[in-house]
Amino acid sequence: MKKAGTGRGAWPPKNASGELPFEESIGYQVRATHRALQRYLQLMIEPYDIASGSWYFLRVLWDEDGLTQRELADRIGIREPTALIAIKDMESRGLVKRSRSKADRRKIHVWLTPKGKALKRQLIPLARDVVATAASSLTITEVRRFLASLAQMQKSLNAAIAAAEPLLNKAAQPALRAVRQSRS
After folding, report:
1. 7-47 residue pLDDT tens
2. CA–CA dist 147, 154 (Å, integer)
3. Residues 129 and 154 reside in one and the same domain
């Protein structure tokens, strides 16, 4: 892990207290920005009776209609049981339909209905307006640099997660065995 210095990996800067003030916390700032984006997007799409949770499913399905429930959950970054609740809600509102795979009956595909597909023409311009508002004080070059920086941070974090998960899983094995034994 790189330590604070003057080049790459120099964030967060060192301070006398060793604390991490909110204004210097990338995680806090990204989360606060995400929450503001979500609140504004929700205000924009609410007249169409679309919850922000459904928004993510629609966005993915507009690009890749017919994914399995598992693939859809993975693309959105949530667990499959949580996705199923949202999918069933969207199905009850006529936005999607589900069908079993003919090749593998265990898999269930999610398809947009005509109503779900039609929402794209109405909602994408609203989402573009939200993004435009968020970026209104930045130049195009600054936005591109910001997006590239976010992509690099995601790459760094995903590499760290991939390296840490096997170690954490291995370290957790004795505790998991103890829990299992206590239940039997």
Report:
1. 666 788 888 788 888 999 999 999 999 999 999 999 999 99
2. 11
3. no
The domain that contains 56 carries what CATH number? 1.10.10.10
Closest alpha carbon to 77 in 8, 161, 19: 161
* Distance (Å, whole) CA 181 – CA 167: 22
Is there a domain that residue 2 lies in?
A: no
| Whole-prediction pTM | 0.77
In a domain, 37, yes or no: yes
Domain extent at residue 145: 139-184
| Count of Cβ atoms closer than 10 Å to residue 119 Cβ | 21
Question: CB of 46 within 8 A of CB of 31?
Answer: no
> Does 10 map to a domain?
no
> Cα separation of 43 and 130, whole Å?
10
| DSSP 8-state symbol, 68 | B
3: in domain? no
> In this structure, are residues 52 and 42 in contact, taking their beta carbons and an 8 Å threshold?
yes
Q: What pLDDT, in 10s, does the model give residues 135-172?
A: 999 999 999 999 999 999 999 999 988 888 887 777 76
Q: Are residues 113 and 151 in the same domain?
A: no
